Amino acid sequence: MEEDDKVAQTKRPVGDSDDEEDMPDYSVLSALSKRHLSAGLPADAPAPSIPKRGEKDFEPTGFGGQAKVLDQSREALFSTVSLPRAHSSKSLSTATWDPLFQRAIVHTQRGQSCVNVGVSERRSNGDTFVTNLELLPEETVYLIERGALDCRWTRTPGQLPESSDFSSCMPISVAQAYAQILGCDSCTLSRYQIYAYLKRLGYIVQRAVLVDKIRTPGIRTGPAPRRRLLRTMLLWIISRLTRWITSILYLFRLVARHIRSKPRGLLGIRPLDPYDSIFQKLQIVSTGCNITPSSQQEHLAPFFYAWRPATKFKRTQPPPPEFRICVLETDKHPMLHVGDFETLFSHVPLSASGDVDEAELSEIREQNSRAYGKQRKVRAKPVKSRRSTHFGSAWQRLEWLLQVLVTMLQRLYTHGHAAKSRTPTLSRPTNVYIPLKAGRRSVVVAIVDQGTTSLLRFGEAEFARWRLAGEGR
Q1: Where is this region: Disordered (predicted)?
Q2: Which of 140, 157, 159, 138 shows the shortest CA–CA distance to 148?
Q3: 189 pLDDT exceeds 90?
């Protein structure tokens, strides 16, 4: 026994890996908390911090000593957590919560916590109208929890509070905010968890209803410039002529095929049919859906809009959303089916070519790419100076004209039936799988399962637009 005691009392090396597997000793925290309380330090003094350790696994042995140690550690942890949290007054904003308005009216803004939150609301105050910054329930609870907002109950519900009466109002604790503010104005606990998770990651999060309300009057539908109108008319005339010529050529080819061969099989494939027409006949299911969103399924509509941190965001003029987030709870909506996805995508508007929102979104993506260093710098190729002659420039023009004629003939004879396809033909990129993966519309579904959150992105792929085979490529 004496040898065993000696071995147990031997000092272990500092870098031993077994120290990480031991249970943390919370009795040290109790000594720190008692020393902090007995010293009579002011409220602004920093409290002793709780050490962060990894997850530990243990099995109960049933002995009383183990239960005693666990009780002591638990009491030490509770005593440390119960210490008052001190925050600097330089970055502490003040607001008053109004239960009738279901908003927190901000009196003073300090720090960067209220930069991208809230909405500017204009309300009547007697004979005048006053514009104040008002916080939504999820924003109020988040700022109170982070220690960036001193929120108090208003003494005059339904009326704009005075800044001078703020000191006489009763403050709101974090527990009171969770109990009485959450649940107001469609702010459930699940939606607040998603909001707080995205805000901690640095995203700019706003409600979809408020953003749509602000952006709807600002939609600009002015006339196109004169050059764009002339270019559109010219392209329309060329497309009509090309469609007539390709239709005539296609009729000649169709008549020649019917004369030379007979159809075979269930699909009516002829021996001289190209592969594009064969793949076209194999398509039996149409792609894409454009349905009108139903008012009975508002839970499938996006509740939050989110932007990445480098976005230049203004509350009065919010940009088009980068991410549309729909929050679902597993106890109410256990599984999504095909009809639900159609409803989800129907809430996302289709962006047309040359749209103002599409241009703003591309600018936002470039800003975030530059901020995170994801944009590669393309080196300019050195230009070799050559002495240009009249004969050389004429020969280059002739080569360019020949290439254009060859390309047009190939398109006419290879894609003769492309004009009759329903989907428009687009310039094929080098990698078609990137736009196929992104889709024309995308929605982020935030699933909350008893407090556990999972964010999944779903996109509506356009297989009919980016065709890999078949007529109309």
Answers
A1: 1-31
A2: 140
A3: yes
CATH code at 341?
Answer: 3.40.1350.10
Residues paired with residue 123 on neighbouring β-strands, in sequence order: 130
Q: What is the pLDDT of residues 337-346, one digit of tens each?
A: 888 888 888 8
pLDDT digits (tens, 9 = 90+) for 209-235: 999 998 876 444 444 455 667 777 887
For the record, the structure tokens of 223 come out as 């006339």
Give the contacts of 238 (CB within 8 A, at least 6 positions apart).
none
Q: Higher model confidence: residue 427 or residue 111?
A: 111
Nearest C-alpha neighbor of 348 from the set 291, 387, 398, 399: 291
Residue 458 backbone dihedrals phi, psi, to 5 degrees: -120, 135
3-state secondary structure of 152: strand
Token code pair at residue 314: 């203004």
pTM exceeding 0.70: no
Query: Beta-carbon neighbour count of residue 86 at 10 Å?
Result: 14
Is the Cα torsion angle 168, 174, 176, 178 positive or negative in sign? positive
Q: For residue 310, give both structure tokens.
A: 């480098």
| Positive/negative CA dihedral, 339, 343, 348, 354 | positive
| Cα–Cα distance measured from residue 12 to residue 194, given in angstroms and rounded to the nearest whole number | 45
Residue 169 lies in domain:
93-183
Give yes or no: residues 312 and 346 share one domain. yes
Task: Name residue 130's beta-bridge partners.
Answer: 123
